[in-house]
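Example record

The entry below shows one chain as it appears in the dataset: sequence first, then structure tokens.
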Amino acid sequence: MTGNFMLVLPVSVYSLFVWLNVGRAGERDIVSGFIKGHLAFFCFVLVLTELLSLGNLLLPSVVQISWIVCVLVLMILVRRKRRLVRSIADRALWKRWLEWSVWGSIIIIVAVFASGILYPPNNWDSLCYHLPKVMHWASSGSVSFFPTPDSRQNFMAPLAEYTILHIYLLSGSDYFFFLVQWASFLVFGLSSCLMTVYLGGSHRLGLISMLLCLSLPMAILQGSSTQNDLVLASFVCSFATFMMRGSIDVKTGGYLWASIAMGLALMTKGTGYVYCAALGSVWGVWGIWNRRHRMRAALGYAASLAMVAVLALLMNAGHYSRNIRTYGHPLSNEAESTQNKDISIESMRDNAVRNILIQLGGPFPSINSRLEAFGRHVLGDRVEHPSTTFPGIDFRVMGIRHEDFAGNPILTALALIFFVPCFFYGLRKRQSTWVVFAVSWIGMGLLLCLMLRWQMWGSRLHLPVFGVMIPWFVYLMFQMQEGFRFWKSIVRWVGIGAVAACWAYAMPFAFGNGTRSLVSMEWKHNDRQDLYGWPLSRVGPSMLSDVRYAVKLCRTSGQKQVGLWMKPDIEYLYWIISNDGVNWVDHLQFRHLYVPDASALLEPESPSPMWIISNLESMDGLGSCGYRVVWAGTRVAIYLRPI
């Protein structure tokens, strides 16, 4: 039996994992425990999904039993751990935590939750490949690859979608799919808080770092979506936290948690390899250098780093093997379009300039156009060079309230202004931790610019860089305030003004999301199905009407298997319209036919379905396969195989 109330199972498991990992009373241990619980939860999802998939057992009943068993086991494990209860009852701790920064964060968190619950998934990438593959997995009971014209449904790292799959199998709807990103939104902020504390800052500075992270426009927009950028950011920032802590103090290592965080990051998104490589290299080299006079300690630390990498790669072994069997490569078959062809200092500089400019983009078109003009003036004919630019993309600075294009102008401008004085202040104080921390987040950004082509929607890829950068700036600004007493009041008010400005700038994004706006009242005046394509120009009433009629015709025929013959498109609309409110047993099952892709070899030998739904752009050729058109709308056609 499925239903939205079954969501209590994953919520309970998540909460119990947090409870299990909370240490002694104190804000640092509570935050660390929350982050570890987050990692443990996703690790459990990964292992459970891979195990059940081996026997094609990803079915609602089996998944429900598995989660119930997990809840019971965790309840036994946490039975004697009353530390969290004592911590919650500590009034002094509540007084320390309930700062103005916490209330500012709560407002954003609640607004993001409301946007996610009131709107369906309506992001273009989600409708094209993030969610369709979840439907295919649920239909087959396995995460094995399947024939598809959109290879992203197969080869891209699937951890965020694994979690969405379990929510779907338990609840039977997509009302709570956004919780995967929303929970990661919280951990993204908490990781920044903990890094600030590990740098030596107070809990108050940590909470300010958390507020700045949660005020990032892109983080707010992603928090109610079904993409995976925030999920990745939470893992990368957790990895940075544990690597930093282990490099500073080997006794508190946490290398197991670092390896889990890295493995989960690699299993979530391809850019995780870039960010974890930069962070692991910087902190690893520095940790070995600190132990250079103690050979045994240095060797032990190097062995720990090797363990981190090996365990992280082993966590991805299942996905690697499926990719190799189908596409001949463990990671991707689209490297030509995403990786730089020109690996050089010049290409890294070009991408760095363009990435900074799109982050400076904001709500003022005149400023955005000037930023574009500046980029074209500085880079000349290299501004859209094909070796460093995603194919078919022009250089533009959008800055709109959209989860693919929003910039972060305030923090980016502050970073450009204050980086040099902050960095040299750290050198002057001979604080190597500050310097290494700066090198780590700069290395993340530069390595991304060196390896990946520039993309107009690349601002969402930069979230982990901001997550690691913010603690460094917050703590260094505080230290500069203490170091230069003459400028103490000026630096203090500049810092308070910057935090207030970031929070105020975040409010339109929290309440006026370009695709899931609370103030527009679209969620109140429209049917939920209509909102799937509301912000997309290619989806209109005619498209929805065609899909509804096509699905109705297929359902009345009594056929459960329906073929899809189309180019990569918003496939999720077909699944949700056909199965919305329908009993699980009566769900329609779609499968792609005549796929012009390596995955075509995965097509089962079962007879072709009687009905095929196709978009009109790809209708040529079905006649030669024995099908005839029985209905054609403006965007969709239905074909019938002769009986």
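Notes for this example: Residues 119 and 527 are 10 Å apart (CA to CA). DSSP finds 28 helices and five strands in the chain.
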